[in-house]
Amino acid sequence: MKKDKHISFDRYYCCGRSLALIHARDLSQEGVEELAKKMCDPFVGVGAQFLALVSSHEKSVCRIQVFDSLGKKIKHDETALLSAAHWLHNRDGVDHVLFLDDRFEKKVTRFENDEFHVDLEPPAFDARSIPISTHEVPWGKPISIKDIRLKMYCLSIGEPFAVCFLDWQKNLDWISKIGPELEGHFLFPKKASIVLAFVLNPQNLIVRVWERGRGLQQGSLGGAAAAAVVAIRNEKAQSPVWVHTNAGKSQVYVMAQGVCLRTQPVHLFSGQFPLG
Fold first, then answer.
1. What is the C-alpha to C-alpha distance for residues 274 and 8, in angstroms, rounded to an integer?
2. What's the rounded mean pLDDT across residues 18-36?
3. Which of 69, 94, 121, 167 would be 40's cystine partner, CB 3.0–4.6 Å?
């Protein structure tokens, strides 16, 4: 009897994202799209939202490609880089990894307690970069959604975000009402991810995020960074600041040269997945 082929994988959870990681040497490039569909299938898969394919050029230099549940290659996701760095540390003992793709290179560094640090896209505040349909970018602009009045701050950190601060922590649940309404607002020609934030103190924020195209998220690396940037720019918080979500916490550093994030990816389990 012919023995079925299997591929080794590791399941990770990082900042609200569920990922499966595999090494490129174990799979031909032609089969990765179909494998992503199968491994991310909610019924027969491994519980992952994304599949990350990692190939090593040198011990601390890697190429990474990320695929969604439809088998489509997507723009690099820092949660995949953080998870892959943790995976490579456990596998090869490396503390610094340079990740390469067709259009970027990013370095991830390990600190104590298995926390990893990655630089994010620099924030942009102009209408063209976000983009916004008006010449003047809303910054503290009053807006009313479903009879809820808020002040909105808009920026881009690799994608458009609208951040609103709340006076009461209990009102973070408004994200389910405000998110879908504001995501497709006429101000955002390419839609936007929506962040509701509550300032616990200058070192801690609590946020809820409605991501464009994905809906309500347990956590969001970009949403955490957007809330931190706005809070620090408005002198509501100080860098570094801890940002708490339902998926855990991340520490965000906002500096003149950009934004970086430090968090702890979680390795859930390893396994074998059948090919064919």
1. 9
2. 84
3. 69
Q: Which residues contact 19 (CB under 8 A, 6 or more apart)?
A: 11, 12, 13, 48, 49, 50, 51, 52, 79, 80, 83
Q: Are 9 and 83 in contact (CB under 8 A)?
A: no
CA angle 54–52–64, rounded 5-degree value: 40
Structure tokens belonging to residue 105: 């290179």
DSSP single-letter state for residue 171: G
Q: How far apart are CA 161 and CA 159, in angstroms?
A: 7
In this structure, what token pair is assigned to residue 246? Answer: 């339902």
Q: How far apart are CA 218 and CA 225, in angstroms?
A: 15
pLDDT digit string, tens, across residues 113-150: 889 999 998 999 999 999 999 999 999 999 999 889 99
DSSP bridge partners of 255: 258
Q: How far apart are CA 63 and CA 108, in angstroms?
A: 13
CB 89 within 8 A of CB 95: yes
Alpha-carbon span 216 to 195, nearest angstrom? 10
CA-CA distance, 217 to 159, in Å (whole number)?
A: 16
Q: Cα–Cα distances in Å, from 54 out to 21, 48, 57, 169?
A: 7, 16, 10, 40
Distance from C-alpha of 156 to C-alpha of 104, rounded to nearest angstrom: 18
Q: What is the pLDDT of residues 173-206, one digit of tens each?
A: 999 999 999 999 999 999 999 999 999 999 999 9
Strand, coil or helix: 40: coil
